[in-house]
Amino acid sequence: MDSAGDVFRLFANCMPVKGARRSTICDLQYHRFDFIPNGLYYILTELKGKTVSEIKAVFDASQHVIIDEYFTFLQEKEYGFFCAEPELFPDLDLTWMAPEQITNAIIDVNEQSRHPYESIFDQLDALGCKALQLRFFDPVSVGEIEKILDSTQRGGLRHIELLLPYSTEFSDDTLKGLCVGNPRISGVVVSSAPKSRRMEVQGTGVPIDFTSAPCTSPACCGETSPKYFVINIGLFTEAQEWNTCLNRKISVSVDGTIRNCPSMPDSFGNVGTISLSDALMAPQSKDLWNIKKDQIKVCRDCEFRYICTDCRAYREDPSDLRSKPLKCGYNPYSAEWKKSGEATAEAFEVGPPADVY
Amino acid sequence: MSKKLIDYIRTEAIELLPLHVVLAQEALEPGTAIRSATSDTHKAEGYLCDSFYKPISRCVGE
Amino acid sequence: MAPFLVISPVGPSMICILSKAHLELTTESVMDWLSFWRVPAIRMNVEDLTAASLSVFIDRSGVNLSWPAGKIRFDPTRIKVVWYRRWGSYLHTALNGQVLFGDAAQENWQDNTINSALHLQRELRTVSEFVFHLLSSARWLSDPNTGIVNKLRVLKLAAECELDIPATSVSNDRASLSAFIEKYGRVVTKAVGEALICEFKGTSFVTYTSLVEQDTVNDRQSSRVFPTLLQECLNKQYEVRVFYLDGLLYSMAIFSQSNEQTAVDFRRYQFQRPNRTVPYQLPGDISSKLTMLLQRLGLETASIDLVKTVDGRHVFLEVNPMGQFGMVSFPCNYHLERAVAAALVKRLYHE
To answer: What is the ipTM of this complex?
Structure first.
């Protein structure tokens, strides 16, 4: 298996993360994870750089078979390799950086909304924002959507996500046509649909998801489930220092108020009267950006904390800004989920590869 | 442009840009870099639109 | 809606980025950083030669260049730094989808078509060279006029810098090629210069490095062949791709697909799982030799390919002054686009 002097080296993009009861290895390149016992976590971190013999020497002889099994597992699953020159393989730099003042935005729309879309998109461009989610809580026609999106054709937005309530007008062809006519649309979710299913636009692969779940207000946000796990360099590094949901996010609510997100109570002004960038000058507008998982109760002991997006809006203890997300059903101290659906390595679905360059 | 936003940019650029440039930028409108119009439209042509690296919101449960 | 274009009143100094329009994500990422730092930058694409409005006036009083980026005019004397990111394919720009000499039955059709295409290419190249000349007082990063890029010269210099290189032969003699294969066993061939790209029915075909069997050479009718490059094929442990910028080397190791039997089932992948890419640290002596080589080549930035052989050697393969570095930056989280933007800013304000 290994020559005497060789040392096992995890690939730099395979990150061990310790939880209260068990740990994970998060493969940031292939977007997958596996559970590992905390004993193996100890070996991979505290005993890093030692040969297998040196590692075995630390443990009782009865553990040696298990140690061999650990390394067989890691090799077969291609999380690492035995190497004679580990100094040639440095760790991954975990610094997160982005050349945008705002990296993502949400605009909520209902029947009463009178948003100055062109002006908002101009302002988002000025802030460097390239990702936008438009959430429609009341019925809206494809024509209206196209009119709104018209002014994005010459702008800097590159990922536009749509959340729409189901309408019989939304035939497969109509939705696909909308995506083809607006190549910046990176995904569509249709809520309150008769049947849950996924469709992809031919050629581009843009996903259109129909879900029977309703979504009629910001209150439906804040879901935490393995379905939303994201295992990539972008989120993992951001999670080290920043809030994975609110960092560099801005939102416009249905009434035009500007907030960190539409579910947050504090407003920094109205888009009809002040600019987004002026709103960002409010003293408290960026306070939540750097509340990281390691500071949040329960989350800081959870093995999923760097692949999971946080929610500060809906908290278990509303009076505590560092309380865990309300809608998270996982207990890292017992490794159990309250709701149905065990987060096993095979059970969850990962999204499409985000790092194909 | 108020002091807060300048400070925000300054923490990024202060090592790179000379002080007189940082100060001069106070008078600037955002979005100063000029990009050829042809390159902007081509952001949506010629390559597949990939999704953002993380969910922007999480509204729909399992 | 107003176009995403604003003239910067900041000082006289600007950065100019020479690129092409399509599929240049790296250029856009670098510009994102410049925009974030409010550093004025303008981008010219090779397609602008035929697509945008370009005028050069030369008369007794001097030269006047007008190249509006979109709907904005700018003063070229304000450009103090130029990044030559990518240019080329004059042919594509020149032809722009047209067909020259459409009638294949015409006398001398093939020669006339080739000559016309070459002519248009040269026309655009001449215009480009003059525009670059008007920017010659700027500080260039990746100057196409300086820097040695001939692959054979690069190999020679690499050897002089005491880097390990694969044994290489260029010959037009069948017997000589045959002897090379005899001596080295596993041998590859590739273009001496740039690869050839041909398009058939909408699909692009590229000539790439391929193994050469003894039979392929010996089956040639004539003892005289077109000058062909042969190189010993290395027994590789992994590949190393390096990005060099202003004295710093950023390396990445690439592990090829391992045994199919042990490959994990990735249900989401319809295509083969990509190779494992991780950050790498070259040994000190290799780093110094590479840095020396790049200095001797006159290059301030370049991509470099090496191979780590099974017997432990780091073997230098080639240098590309305009190589893609996004494929090194992203997997290793090196933020190279920011580094390049910073290098441009450094040249703009600190030199």
So the answer is: 0.91
